[in-house]
Amino acid sequence: MRRIMDIAFNPALPLSGFVVGLLVGLTGVGGGSLMTPLLVLLFGFKPATAVGTDLLYAAITKSGGSWVHQRHGNIDWAITRRLALGSVPAAGLTLLLLAQLSVQGHGTTGLISVVLGVALLLTAISLFFRQRLLNLAKRRSTSADFPRRHVGGLTVLIGAIVGALVTVSSVGAGALGVTALTFLYPNLATRRIVGSDVAHAVPLTLVAGLGHWWLGTVDVLLLVSLLIGSLPGIALGAHFAARVPERALRGLLASVLLLIGGKLILA
């Protein structure tokens, strides 16, 4: 009971949700990259609880983002379906594996921490080198050996990798998904790549989040506390997104994610 009261009346949780939501609105970096390590390192939640709660948090917040992208015609549903064809089954299989390993056990907790750290490092690298990857992809798209006929299968494979990674760590659906799609679809407008990735994240995080609920690793009061702060934060960040130096802010976030990822791996 004391634990519930602490969560319900801890103003730091909605405030953290607001700050993370603000950064997500400003930069587009997935909330899991920021929220999950914050819950683990600052508030002391078990990694499994932080991941499970953040997945449902992401499903709710990304649903609103997906609706906005759909209204503006930013979603390529063929790409979204290919990603989901790989990610949703991979999420289901990963959940079954976590259930077999006892998700709250000491060994599994260590595994989740390491996977989370690796996912954060990959996210940071993708933020640092996104523009270089985009330029490389555009050069490859003009060459004869660019594997256009394999793009569909590779998209499904990327979806499966992201699905497994997100289910274990709640990180990867945003920055990593966008980077992979940018490389596979270099001639597609950035807004449609982002919109397709956001739309794909909704079913993925919902399935993974409900699976974690089944595993008992979702804290409902924590979820509500984070949403209270993050929803206005995302709206405010999106409003001011065009007025901030996004490139510099992304570099700063990438540096922070490198430090956090290293700490989780070496802990």
How much strand?
under 5%
Helix/strand order: HHHHHHHHHHH
For this structure, the quaternary state is: single chain
Instruction: Round the Cα radius of gyration to an integer and report it.
Output: 18 Å
Describe the global form.
globular
Total number of domains = 1
What structural class should be given to the helix and strand makeup?
mainly alpha
Measured distance between first and last alpha carbons: 30 Å
Describe this structure in words.
The chain is an all-alpha fold and 267 residues long. The chain has one domain. The protein contains 11 helices and no strands. The chain has helices at residues 2-8, 12-27, 31-41, 47-71, 77-101, 106-141, 151-169, 175-184, 190-215, 220-240, 246-266. Helix 2 (12-27) packs parallel to helix 10, helix 4 crosses helix 7 (151-169) and helix 5 (77-101) crosses helix 7. The longest helix is centred in the middle third of the chain and has 36 residues, at 106-141. The chain starts with a helix and ends with a helix. Residues 1-8 have low confidence and may be disordered.
Key terms:
single chain; 267 residues; mainly alpha; 0% strand; disordered N terminus
Task: Summarize the topology.
Elements: H1 2-8, H2 12-27, H3 31-41, H4 47-71, H5 77-101, H6 106-141, H7 151-169, H8 175-184, H9 190-215, H10 220-240, H11 246-266
Helix pairs in contact: 2-3, 2-10, 3-4, 4-7, 4-9, 4-10, 5-7, 5-9, 6-8, 6-11, 7-8, 8-9
